[in-house]
Design goal:
The chain has 14 helices and 14 strands. The protein is α+β, with helices and mostly antiparallel strands. The chain folds into four domains: 85 residues; 106 residues, 2-Layer Sandwich (Beta-Lactamase), CATH 3.30.450; 99 residues, Beta-Lactamase (2-Layer Sandwich); 68 residues, 2-Layer Sandwich (Beta-Lactamase). The strands form four sheets. A five-stranded antiparallel sheet has the order 2-1-7-6-5, sandwiched between helices. A five-stranded antiparallel sheet has the order 9-8-12-11-10. The protein has a two-stranded antiparallel sheet with strand order 3-4. Helix 1 runs antiparallel to helix 3. The protein is elongated, with a radius of gyration of 50 Å. It starts with a helix and ends in a 17-residue tail after the last helix.
């Protein structure tokens, strides 16, 4: 602005000098009685006196033009600087600028200060390694800094930063190198990805747990097609993953043929979850029993049957063995002439054989679930309880005692 005022003043002084020059020449011509000659040559004289002024005006016009042009350029540059400064300070990601050679931080924005929990004075003038935990430092610089400095420009690298309170946060850093007034600088943009990393780790943990589960897991669509399976399902059925994903439920479960699937799907939608026993068929044709728990899931507007299948071959074998043992036990005890009974920890009868039932003289349903006091009365019940207590303490009791049962003794 001061420059422009100076140019206008110089231009005004030039015009004044030109007017004075014309006036002086006019009075000289008049005093020398050359007025007629002046009048005859007035155009020539005026032209001769005007040329310097025209040159003067053209010169200062050019000067003024370039001065205004430089001013507009300076204003534009200032506007860009202000715009950059606003964007720099209001950016959601943290930004740091460091001397590329020394690694000294020369600038940073508010987001980086909030991310690290530090004040501006705690970062500016410090080495960039102050931003990172010790395990991220190599040869005095952070590993990501060295890769950005000597590697591909604008690449995203993951690293960690150290906050003022000692918390370590995961960040993604994108950097670029620029030169200003002969000095190289590196600008890094820090994006906090701590929550993203936690989510990824949780997903990896879930996927790892699913893949390493001993139970078969299936994601099934409404058309009975497998859309996803875990490693255990492939192992338990003897198929590869690609083979299993090309099959339908009826291919591995003979109890769910295609004509029953629609009814099954509708029942699942209504109840939300079901548990039942079924049979699965391996690739080699062998069949084994399973307990299946299924859940109805709606995800991204798509319906799924999420199924867990647990091999219950051992349980079934145990149940059969138990049934056989119970049958043998019942056969032995029912035909025994000795009095046989079983009590729980509360001294209540849970089993009696026929001989014991005849001895007591009551129906079986009036004996099971009751204590000796409830059956024999208080006095006789205490005698039985005393023996029971010794047995439950681990003692083996072999003795004969009189016991009144009804009218028997």
């Amino acid at each position: 602005m001061v420059k422009n005022k100076f140019i206008y003043i110089v231009l005004l002084l030039g015009v004044i000098v030109w007017i004075l020059d014309i006036a002086i020449d006019y009075y000289i011509f008049r005093d020398l009685s050359l007025l007629d000659s002046f009048q005859l040559l007035s155009f020539t004289e005026v032209l001769l006196h005007t040329l310097p002024l025209i040159s003067f005006i053209i010169f200062f016009t050019v000067v003024l033009y370039y001065a205004n042009k430089n001013k507009l350029a300076a204003q534009k540059l200032k506007s860009l600087e202000n715009k950059y400064e606003v964007q720099f300070n209001e950016a959601l990601d943290g930004i740091a600028v460091a001397n590329a050679e020394s690694g000294i931080l020369v600038d940073c924005n508010h987001a980086l200060l909030e991310m690290t929990g530090r004040g501006r004075g705690e970062l500016i003038g410090k080495h960039q390694s102050v931003l990172h935990p010790p395990e991220s430092i190599e040869d005095g610089h952070s590993k990501s800094y060295k890769k950005h400095l000597h590697g591909k420009e604008s690449q995203n690298l993951e690293d960690r930063i150290l906050t003022k309170n000692g918390e370590i946060r995961d960040v993604s850093i994108k950097a670029n190198i620029f030169e200003y007034e002969g000095t190289r600088y590196i600008q890094g943009i820090f994006r906090d990805i701590s929550e993203q990393k936690k989510t990824e780790e949780q997903l990896h943990l879930v996927q790892f747990s699913v893949d390493n589960s001993n139970d078969s897991l299936f994601w099934i669509d409404r058309n009975a097609k497998f859309v996803n399976v875990n490693m255990a399902s492939c192992k338990n059925l003897g198929y590869s993953r690609d083979e299993l994903l090309s099959l339908q439920v009826s291919d591995i479960d003979p109890e769910f043929p295609p004509d029953k699937w629609t009814e099954h799907w509708n029942n699942l939608r209504k109840s939300g979850s079901l548990t039942f026993e079924s049979k699965h068929k391996r690739k080699n044709g062998t069949i084994f029993p399973v307990e299946v728990k299924i859940n109805y899931i709606l995800f991204n507007n798509r319906e799924y049957n999420f199924a867990f299948a647990h091999d219950i071959t051992e349980r079934k074998r145990t149940e059969i063995n138990l049934q056989e043992s119970e049958s043998k036990f019942k056969s032995i005890t029912e035909n025994a002439t000795d009095y046989i009974f079983i009590k729980d920890i509360d001294r209540r009868y849970t089993f009696i054989n026929q001989a014991m039932q005849k001895l007591i003289g009551l129906p079986e349903d009036e004996i099971l679930g009751k204590t000796p006091e409830e059956i024999f009365g208080h006095e006789q019940g205490l005698i039985v309880k005393e023996v029971d207590d010794r047995i439950f303490s681990g003692e083996t009791v072999e003795e004969t005692r009189p016991l009144a049962i009804g009218d028997k003794k």
